[in-house]
Design brief:
By secondary structure, this protein is mostly helical. It has a domain of about 120 residues. The chain contains ten helices and no strands.
């Protein structure tokens, strides 16, 4: 009998939510076995909670937000949490495209449920429409518009987080009090859950956008893998002598494939140049200048900086300069996205040109 069998719907949800919060604040690497064990535990708890919500028919498509019981509102967050957790799964035995597809299904179900209950803003509906049309393709939205949307979501996310903290403090302050304050407590709790849903909507849209971008990369990798299989090349280097040091490198394979694609780098030369290089040439390219001559030439061009010394310290940022903070945060986010989209070594094509 599983340890989760005796847990109620509320307990499954709260414990899964707690684990997800711990994962967001942890210092563990995402590939750490302990981290992945927590991810699996949270997914198992919230999956059971999701099944119970469906079994009990807690939500109806024709209900508006105000008609839903206050104690049940938080269960609307389950698909969003499962979509976020699924993206955190790192398992070499599971195809990445399957993980992305499953996470996208959870996110789309969460968004669809929020739309049914009137919880999606107009500006978010525009982004949802754009993402629905992309589906595995490169974004058709101009880069400037994507940047503006991202900045707007970031500002909203910061404001919503502040609102959640304030409402949570109000709920904690009136905990245990009853009688005349019961009605006010329920109103604050509904407002708190609504703010949580808005926060998860913003995160879900961000995750959905990241999934579509990664799908493009995954498809490109699959195409490259198929081409390598057809041409007989491999992405995994063996323990043999490096190809550049082999005496037969460049001579043991045809220049072009059957389809006419180049299989190795080459230089087009006329007959006279080819004969001249064979008679008078060397087996390698000789340097045309010494290192000192090269440095002098670069110095004359102004490409060498002299003097050195300590770099001036960057002036501290004003705490009230929100625009500067936003710009600095967006710059860091864009760099993180670039690093994720271009992992180290992704551009190495095995010296194939």
């Amino acid at each position: 009998m599983s340890a989760l069998d005796g847990l109620s719907l509320g307990k499954l949800f709260s414990t899964g939510q707690t684990i997800l919060t711990e994962l967001e604040d942890t210092s563990l690497s995402s590939i750490d076995p302990e981290y992945q064990a927590k991810v699996a535990d949270a997914i198992q708890r919230l999956s059971r909670a999701d099944a119970l919500v469906a079994q009990l028919n807690i939500f109806s498509d024709n209900e508006i937000f105000d008609e839903i019981n206050t104690n049940d509102l938080k269960f609307l967050l389950i698909p969003a949490y499962l979509g976020d957790l699924t993206l955190k799964v790192s398992d070499k035995d599971i195809d990445r495209s399957n993980i992305l597809e499953k996470s996208r299904e959870y996110i789309q179900r969460f968004i669809s449920t929020c739309q049914d209950h009137g919880l999606i803003r107009k500006e978010d509906s525009v982004i949802i429409e754009q993402l629905s049309h992309n589906k595995g393709k490169s974004p058709s939205v101009p880069a400037a518009q994507q940047r503006d949307q991202k900045i707007a979501r970031f500002k909203r996310e910061r404001a919503v987080k502040s609102q959640i903290q304030q409402l949570r403090a109000q709920l904690d302050g009136v905990a245990g009090k009853k009688d005349d304050e019961d009605r006010d407590v329920e109103e604050v709790e509904r407002e708190w859950v609504e703010a949580l849903i808005e926060l998860e909507t913003l995160r879900a849209l961000e995750n959905w956008h990241a999934i579509e971008q990664e799908f493009v990369m995954v498809k490109e990798m699959e195409i490259m893998r198929e081409m390598m299989e057809k041409t007989g090349t491999s992405t995994v280097l063996d323990n043999r002598e490096p190809v550049l040091n082999r005496p037969t490198w460049g001579k043991d394979k045809p220049m072009l494939s059957k389809e006419g694609r180049p299989l190795q780098p080459f230089v087009i030369m006329n007959k006279r140049e080819q004969m001249k290089s064979q008679v008078f040439g060397y087996g390698h390219n000789l340097p045309t200048m010494s290192i000192d001559e090269y440095l002098e030439q670069e110095k004359a061009r102004g490409n060498i900086i002299e003097g050195g010394g300590e770099q001036p310290e960057k002036p501290p940022m004003d705490d009230n300069d929100y625009e500067a903070h936003d710009a600095d945060t967006m710059k860091k986010r864009q760099w993180d996205e670039f690093v994720e989209a271009n992992p180290k070594g992704a551009g190495n094509r095995g010296n194939k040109g």
